[in-house]
C-alpha cells in the first residue's frame, strides 16, 4: 500500500460539470491533493450504458470533463487523471466481482431503480446498464483506495463496493467474517473497506422548480436546471435571473419564504459574505427586499467564482495536445497500479499459472 492514503473518484462523461459537482465532490478532490495519493477516473465505458450509439459524443464529453478537472484546480503533477477504457484490469475485475454479487442484491440498488425511472428506460436498457454498478466497484477497488469523495447519490454504489471487498477478503484472503472493517488489511485482506467522503453540500438543488410532489430536483444537465462550472458570464446571469424562488411572492413587498428556495440555498452555499446573507434573508422574509436584487447579488457571487474557470477553459481548448498528454500519462500511471492489484487478486484466488 502507498505511504499516503489513496483516494479514487471520478465522473461518467455525460457533458460538462456543474456547480453541484463542485460542492458534492470536486471541491474535496482539489483540497485533498497534497495529503492523499489521488486517482481521478473518466468513466467513458459507463457512458456507453445509455449512449452506445453516440461514441463520438462520449469521446468529446470525456475531453470536456478532463478540461473541467484542470480548470477547477486538479493538478496533474499531484494527481492522476485517467480514462477508464485505457485500463484493462478494470474490465477483468468487473467480471470477477460479478461472481460475488447476487442478482437480486444488484436490483435492490436504489440508484439503478432511480436511473431507470428518471431516464425513462422502461425495459429497453442493455445488460451493460445492470453491469455498470459492478464496473464501478471495479473502478474503485482496482486502486485499493481508503476514501472515495462522492456526492450523496453515490452512497449505494459505495456500499456495494464495501460488500464486494469484504466478500473477496473473506473468501480468498482468509479474513474472518467477524473482523472489523478497519482490520481487513492488517489481517491479510487485499482490498480496504472504503469510506465515503461527502462534500459540504450533499445534494445541490437545481435552478428550476419542484416536481409534482413538491420536492426540489437536484442540479442535473439532463433536467436543464444546471449552472456549469465554466459557463460564460451571460449564461450565468441568464440562468440566475430565471431561477425559481417563492411562487407565493407576487411582488417585491410581499413577505418571502427562504425555506426550500433555491435562491437562498445558492447564497448559503456560495456567497462568502455571510453577514449580507443573514441580513438579506431577514429583509426578504419581511418584504423589504426583492428577488431581483438578491438574484443580482448572486450573479456577482457566482461570476466571481466561475469567470476564472471559464477563461481557463478557453485557454485549454486551444491546447488540446496538452490535455490529451495529461490523460495519456495518467493512464500509464493508473495501469501500473491497477495491474499490481490484478496480479495480487489472481494470486489470492490461486489463478496464477
In short:
With 353 residues, the protein is mainly α. It is 52% helix and 10% strand.
CATH fold group of the largest domain: Rossmann fold
Number of helices: 13
The parts where pLDDT drops under 50 for at least 5 residues are none
Question: What is the alpha-carbon Rg in Å?
Answer: 22 Å
* Major pleated sheet: 3 strands, parallel
Question: Averaged pLDDT, please?
Answer: 93
Strand/helix succession: EHEHHEHHHHEHEEEHHHHH
The overall strand count is: 7
Broad shape: globular
Which key phrases capture this entry?
353 residues; mainly alpha; Rossmann fold; Tyrosyl-Transfer RNA Synthetase; 2 domains; two-stranded parallel ribbon; 7 strands; globular
Q: Would you spell out the secondary-structure blueprint of this structure?
A:
Blueprint: E1 6-11, H1 19-31, E2 37-42, H2 44-51, H3 55-72, E3 79-83, H4 88-97, H5 103-107, H6 110-118, H7 127-141, E4 147-150, H8 155-173, E5 195-198, E6 205-210, E7 216-218, H9 233-241, H10 262-270, H11 274-286, H12 291-317, H13 320-348
Helix pairs in contact: 2-3, 2-7, 3-12, 4-7, 4-13, 7-8, 9-12, 10-12
